[in-house]
Structures are given as structure tokens and as C-alpha cells.
Amino acid sequence: MVTAMSEQHHQQVENAQTEQDLVTTKKSKWRWLRHLGCGLLCLILIPFVFLMTGKGQRTAFELADKFLEPLTIGSVKGSLQDGLTLSDTKFVTDGVNVAVGQADLQIGFGCLFRLESCVENLALKDTKVEIDTAKLPPAQPEKESEPFNELNLPVGISANKIVLDNIQVKVDEMDIALTHFHSGISGKGRAVNLAPTELDGLTVSLAPASTAQAVEKTQNIAKESVKQTASTIDWAEIKAKLAQPLLTKQAPITLPLDAMIPQLEAKNIRIEQKVKDKDGKFVTPQSIVKLESLLLQAKADQQAIELSQLLLKSDRGNINGNGLLTLAENYPLNWTLNADSPLLADLKIPASQAKVVLNGKLFGKTSLDIQTNGAVKARLTGEVQLAEPKTPLNLRLASEAVSYPFIPEKGTDPLKLEKID
User: Fold this and answer.
1) Residues paired with residue 236 on neighbouring β-strands, in sequence order
2) Nearest Cα to Cα of residue 336 among 294, 307, 293, 375
3) Long-range contacts, stretch 343-350, CB < 8 angstroms, 24+ apart
4) How far apart are the C-alpha atoms of 49 and 60, rounded to whole Å?
5) No. of helices (H) and no. of strands (E), the chain
6) Its pTM surpasses 0.85
7) What number of other Cβ atoms are within 10 A of residue 202's Cβ?
8) Mean pLDDT across 52-68
9) How far is CA 102 from the centre of its chain?
């Protein structure tokens, strides 16, 4: 009996020892897993924390400069939090040559806590971009994509300050020179808001038109015209389409986004075309239009499209206008546009003025009233019903007299029409 009790006691001791060993083993495993997890977390956090510092960010750009052959960075200063500055940056690859004198970038990391992306400052200064399309790699065939119906930004984004100074872009023989641009933009969901924007000094120099290009373009147009004439025209289908109303409330007018433009100012804009002499050398370019100033204030959303103010002054004429289109019920609208132009000697058009008034309802009767003076003194009035089958249209033109050419040459008799009604 004593022997049996002794064996039972020994067995209990062994079981207790085994349980203790299992507990110790489990604790060792959990301790090892905790150490492994802490190690992996440190491996992830240390580079992240390092990149959050100015030193880490500068090191990242220096490594990019070292390992990316097309990229060259002169110097890196600052941090993304306080403002990072890249100086003398170059990017050169087949057909593309970019040189940036100074680039500034500042990111607001505090926005991340609000699940937003914020760029506090983005600035480029003394930048030259040259693109030779003949040296670019062949373009990949574009995949068919779904039509863009509505903008939906999942998170808020903003670029509070965008500044461009002394930017020059050359695409083959076309040159674009920008003196100064200052703007900002923000958006969330379908709303996009443009900050007050200023543009001062923009010159677009179009490539010279060669005789060979003009002949080739004319030949292509002629070939396309022959193809279209030779193709079968389904007049019944055309007649059926014309019989349908252009607008229906089953397919209402919808905008893909809401846009706000509180103020956009532009001045000193020139569009010209380069000219070559008979020896192939560039001479003084031919001016197309010089825009003295432009002021635009507008907004558009799901309720209305409003043009608060449009003022444009150029050497070819001036335009001012405003209008409102309400996107509800029968879509009432009221738009006014005034235009005047000086003597255009190259086109043989005398100084002229025009006033255009468009009002009524898009899903009812839309009225048009155009009054002109100068080259033609006339008045055109009319009504159109865009939501009715066959689009009923009624126009009336009235003028005391019309002559052409508007500025006849000496010794020629212009064509004259009187009492037009």
C-alpha cells in the first residue's frame, strides 16, 4: 500500500512538472512572437520615420539622383514639411529634355489625419522643356475606356499655392513662353474649386506653315471628301434623327462636376505664327491675336450654370457678357453678349458692334436676338423649340441695306441689297 501511494505521488509530481514545462514553452513561444512582431514593426517604422525627417527626404532625392540615369539634381535643401527646394534639376531621355532652375514643394502632413491630401506650395522657376516628337518612343495603342460621366474624388485634395515663373516649352517648332502664373485648386467628391488665378505674360508661337504641309492637308481633305461622297448615305436614318427633338427630359442636361471660378485674370497674351523667308530663316512672326486682358467669374453645379462676368479686351475686339441657365423645370435661361471690333484692315472689315441676347426656356421656346452695326447693320430675331419634334425654327432678318465687300476697293462696284425683311 505504501508502495502504491509512493508511485501515485511520483506520478502527480511528473504531471505537475510536465504542465509547468508546457506553460514555460508557451510563454517562450509568445515571447519569441512578440519579439519578432516588434522587430518587423521597427523595420517598417524606422524607414518611415526617417523619411519624415528633412535628412531622410534629402537622402531619398540624393539616392534617386544616383540610381536614375536620366535624372540629375544639383542640390536639395529643406524638408517637405517646411518646404523642400530642388535646384538645377535635369531630366533627359529620348525626345524629352527638361531643365528646372528651382522647384519648391511643401506638403501639409496634418491633412492626413483628416484623410485629405494637401500641397501647401508647388512652384517652378526658370524651367525649360524641349520635346522632339520624332524621337519619342512609339505610342502604345489606347485601350477603350468607359466614358467620363461624373467626377468622384474619394478624398479631399488641395493645392493651396501653385506658382510658375519663367517657363519655356518647345514642342518641335512650336514655342510657349509663360512669364507668371499663380493659382490654387481644391476638390472633394464632385466639387472642384479654383482659387483666384492670375496669369501675366503668355506667348504661343505656332510652327510655320510650309507649302508642302498645306498641299498634303488639301490632298487629304480631298481624299476624305471623295470617300464620304462614294459611301452610301442612309437618308431615311438622317430624316428619322432630324424628326426627333434635340432635347428630352428623359435625358436631362447633367454636368460631370461642380466647378467654381471666383476670379480668373489674364493679361499680355499673344498668339502668333512663325514665318520663314525663302532661305528657310526665321523672320518676324505674324501676329494672330494680342489679348490685353481677360476677366472671368463663373460657377456651375447641378442646379445652374452661371457666368457672372466675362470681360475680354484684344487688338481684334472686345467682348463682355453674363448669363444664367437654371437646370430645373423647363431650364430657363438669360444670356447677354456684347462685342465690338476695330477696323480690321487685313480682313477688310470696318469697325463693328454686335449684341446677342438669348433667353426663354430650353424645354420651351428659346428666343434669339442679334443686333449688328458697322460692317452690317441688321437685326436677326427668332425662336426655336429644341424639345419639340422636328425642332421648329422661326427666323427673321431685317436690314435697311447690305453691301459686299464691306470696304470696296477703288473703281469697283460692291454688291448691294436693300430693304431686307
Assistant:
1) none
2) 307
3) 344/316, 348/405, 348/406, 348/407, 349/374, 349/375, 349/406, 349/407, 350/374, 350/375, 350/406, 350/407
4) 13
5) 4, 18
6) no
7) 19
8) 72
9) 24
